[in-house]
Design a protein that fits this description.
It is built from seven helices and no strands. About 75% of the residues lie in helices and about 0% in strands. It has one domain: Ribonuclease III domain (Ribonuclease iii, N-terminal Endonuclease Domain, Chain A, Orthogonal Bundle). The longest helix is centred in the N-terminal third of the chain and has 22 residues. With about 130 residues, the protein is an all-alpha fold.
């Protein structure tokens, strides 16, 4: 179910990132299950390698040239959001970039743009 633009625009950016984190995590899990016969422990280890600040920061740099102007604005809004803490296993720069990626995925999800999410995720998977 897509939300109206006004509601999405008024939503705090970290809420977009919260939704986007779940969307991205689910895409990674689905991809791993579909493309591996590994046991769940190994699947989780692989997931963790793809769903962390450093990896997400690397992936967003890859897809950035493919973003529309509006998508890039959402990414930058997420990247520039003030956060109170960052993961102890990442740099602040990576944490901000990952937050931007998650905000973008959350924004696309709430707009009902699932095809675009899949396009961007496919770019990431093809890179890996």
């Amino acid at each position: 179910m897509a939300m109206d633009d006004k509601t999405i625009q008024s939503m705090p950016t970290l809420n977009l990132a919260f939704i986007g984190d779940g969307v991205y995590d689910l895409l990674v899990r689905e991809y791993l299950v579909q493309n591996s016969s590994a046991h769940v422990g190994e699947l989780n280890q692989r997931k963790v390698k793809m769903v962390n600040c450093k990896s997400q920061a690397e992936y967003v740099r890859l897809i950035l040239p493919e973003l529309s102007e509006e998508e890039e604005e959402v990414y930058k809004r997420g990247r520039n959001t003030k956060v109170n803490s960052a993961s102890k296993h990442s740099t602040l720069s990576d944490y901000h970039a990952a937050t931007g990626l998650e905000a973008l995925f959350g924004w696309l999800y709430l707009k009902g743009r699932h095809d675009r999410i899949n396009e961007l995720f496919t770019l990431i998977i093809n890179y890996i």
